[in-house]
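Hi again,

Forgot to attach this to my earlier email, sorry! This is the prediction with threonylcarbamoyladenylate bound. I've pasted everything inline since the attachment limit keeps bouncing my files.
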Amino acid sequence: MAEIGSQVGHVVALLRAGECVGLPTETVYGLAANAFHTRAVTQIFEIKRRPHFDPLILHIHSSRQMLDLTSHIPNDAVLLAQAFWPGPLTLVLPRSSQVPDLVTSGLDSVALRMPAHPLTRQVLQKLTFPLAMPSANPFGYISPTTAKHVQEQLGDKIPYILDGGPSEVGIESTIVGFDGNNAYILRPGGITEQQIVSVIGRLVPQPEATGTPLAPGQLKSHYAPRTPLTMLTRAKVEALEYERRTAVLVFGAPLTQYPHTEQFNLSPSENLAEAAHNLFAFMRTLDQAGFRQIYAHWLPETGLGIPINDRLKRAAGLG
Ligand code: TXA
Ligand code: MG
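Structure tokens for the complex follow:
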């Protein structure tokens, strides 16, 4: 069983030896390995049961690494990196020959992110290689936001999980791709559309995906709990009659007809950052509580409400 601890030096040694470890980030916990080590990266795919067509994000700590791993950087990518790194933003850029095919699933682009969590930054600064790091959950399940979540799901497959406390943001990074210098969102996440537009002026629609999905985070029924989750309007949720062994996931004023124990409130004060922080942990608790059915309602489709609704939609299997 994986040990949970705070020994940065031990983690660095394990990563240098080609092992996979659990690492905290400000978005969600990741399953990290040396991106240049074929066997280590292969293990990531095996541990997660992740299909090889789904590429990995490389995590870096310096702009030097960004230059080394890419062949061209659009101006707007530079502006976004300056504004939001370290932080919950991933940039998909044309890759250099240094990037192994295994990491990018053979694509000619590479996804790069500079995470903000201080412990993981310390780890990255001690390494001479970038870390390939998907979210530390079995493929298709809810992303982990604590070390304990990682241990519950992957604890028998990795030696160590670095404990950095609950992930502050709570949902994955925003992934931005480029068509020339035109930026588009591949996956909504911790940096909002408004924040991006405030830096580069505009976003273009995502080009039509051909064949395999550009970002399989977009696959139907990703992030799914095992208990059926049904999305309703807030009005419909307010009109629900209480049924045994059902739970509601709400945002804002509590429902009067549902007992406390079966009502999970993402943010009673309607704070979207608080809701993002709570989302995956609540879905996990709900999933483990043995409910027959979960009802939830959509959040305002603005700011962090957009990525939260995206995750809820997938959890409900509505793709
Ligand atoms: O917040 C995050 O981004 C977390 C933390 C651990 O950093 N990581 C994360 O990784 O969410 P993962 O593997 O669970 O999701 C990464 C997504 C996948 O859907 C993958 O398809 C997409 O990024 N991706 C990776 N490389 C890509 C590329 N070259 N082009 C398009 N999409 C890419
Ligand atoms: Mg993931």
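The longest strand covers residues 89-94. Residues 187 and 217 are 7 Å apart (CA to CA).

That should be everything now.

G.
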